[in-house]
Design brief:
By secondary structure, the chain is an alpha/beta fold. The chain is built from 18 helices and 14 strands. It has helices spanning 4-9, 12-22, 35-41, 59-68, 72-76, 86-98, 112-122, 135-149, 160-176, 192-204, 220-227, 250-259, 268-282, 288-299, 323-333, 350-358, 393-403, 414-417; strands spanning 31-33, 44-49, 79-82, 102-106, 126-130, 152-153, 183-187, 209-215, 262-266, 308-313, 337-345, 364-369, 378-386, 406-409. It is globular and about 80 Å long. The two termini are 42 Å apart.
């Protein structure tokens, strides 16, 4: 449990002080009323646009607030951090601004777009070291390096100055809105954002319901709350790289437990569907972690009707090379993409029969792999089919069975399906 001293150290005064410390370096990002989302969910929906922040995420707030408060001796000894990308960019930007050298550890799996951005923001003051498959692996390596070189470690979330910096988002939201906020949706990875903003809202807008949103594949907070203690996950899905941590902070777990009214987990398919939706409808580029709060609207659509809701869009550092994967995941989630092992009779005209008599008018073959290796009566082929409407799935299955083509449905077979997606 947090001591009263630590609880009180995350005071509103500390967050106001952080707001002054980052002024002129960090942007006060817009709070935007979203007409299309408001109409769809019959509510007043606002996006807090941290995706247009100076480093395209809110992480600059905490990083700069922490680093600008260090002594000259600490700055001279160098800065070290571990990050999946956005915190690294914030640290790099701050170190270049303050002319302090920094060594940044990032997972090998980090999108190249984020690595390039870190190098761009830090320039000659930053050195990037790629280590491990997850943030937790990078953090362990960074801690060892920091001790060996007597440098200052800037934690991405489990630090009071970092948390206070993130809390300035809450001050801006409340300053920019004239109506009561019924629900505030926030992404949760390590918990720094939810801790800082949660502290502000519990002081200045206690009637607002605070919901922390995690990726389903990395539910650190949800798992810890169920077990009653901060818990390290054995395995995580790394797709939502900005919120994929095996263990959240010790400070942030206690703060989130104290401030949040509820938590929610979002499957990666819905996240991808949301990314495509905001891009197509609003021309917004958001990263997977940045889409978490927006995706949560779908899971809370009944209770938010007629309410005022703010979604914190935490970042827009999306790697364009991942878009095909996101489109695929979105189609699978919406029930529009299906993979099968099809049993083709090894005779002329079998494929034509499948196309004419089995496929629906609006069905499209998007994947086909078949090799005739023997003289058996049937030859299996892996076929991917995209539907125009998810309701077309059952009729498709019925026609496959009737014509004797259905071998195996692969979407429900993770061991085989992983080789396709």
């Amino acid at each position: 449990m947090l001591s009263e001293t630590i609880k009180n150290s995350l005071s509103l005064e500390k967050i106001y002080k952080a707001q002054q410390s980052i002024k002129g370096v960090v942007q006060a990002t817009p709070l935007v009323f979203m007409k299309n989302f408001s109409e769809e969910y019959q509510a007043n929906i606002y996006f807090k646009r941290e995706d247009v922040q100076v480093v395209r995420s809110y992480k600059i707030r905490g990083a700069y607030n922490k680093i600008q408060g260090l002594s000259q001796k600490e700055l001279k000894n160098g800065i070290v951090c571990a990050s999946a990308g956005n915190h690294a960019q914030g640290v790099a930007f701050a170190c270049k601004k303050l002319e302090a050298n920094c060594t940044i550890f990032m997972p090998i799996t980090t999108p190249h777009q984020k690595i390039d951005q870190v190098k761009m923001f830090g320039g000659e003051f930053v050195e990037v070291k790629l280590f491990g498959d997850s943030f937790d692996d990078s953090q362990a390596a960074a801690s060892i390096f920091c001790k060996e070189h007597k440098s200052t470690f800037v934690h991405p979330f489990d630090d009071l100055d970092v948390i206070a910096g993130q809390g300035t988002i809450g001050l801006e939201i409340l300053n920019d809105i004239n109506s009561k906020i019924d629900y505030l949706l926030m992404p949760v990875g390590g918990g720094g954002l939810a801790s800082g903003v949660g502290s502000v809202f519990k002081s200045l807008s206690p009637e607002t319901k605070l919901i922390g949103v995690e990726p389903k594949g990395a539910p650190s907070l949800t798992t810890s709350l169920k077990k009653g203690e901060n818990t390290t996950l054995d395995e995580i899905e790394k797709f939502v790289d900005g919120a994929a941590v095996k263990r959240m902070g010790e400070l942030t777990f206690e703060f989130c437990k104290q401030f949040l009214d509820e938590t929610d987990t979002i499957c990666e398919g819905l996240i991808c569907s949301t990314i495509l939706k905001v891009y197509n409808e609003n021309a917004l580029v958001v990263e997977p972690a940045g889409a978490l709060s927006i995706a949560a609207l779908e899971q809370h659509k009944e209770k938010i009707k007629g309410k005022t809701v703010v979604c914190i869009v935490s970042g827009g550092n999306n790697d364009i090379t991942r878009m095909e994967e996101m489109k695929e995941r979105a189609l699978l989630f919406r029930g529009l993409k299906h993979y099968f092992i099809i049993k083709f009779p090894q005779r002329a005209g079998a494929l034509k029969e499948f196309v004419v008599d089995v496929l629906g008018q609006n069905d499209d073959i998007t994947y086909f792999e078949y090799t005739k290796k023997n003289n058996r009566a049937e030859g299996p082929a892996v076929v991917g089919i995209q539907l125009a409407d998810k309701d077309d799935f059952e009729p498709l299955i019925a026609r496959m069975k009737q014509k004797g083509f259905l071998g195996e449905y692969l979407n429900d077979n993770p061991e085989l399906f992983q080789f396709l997606i």
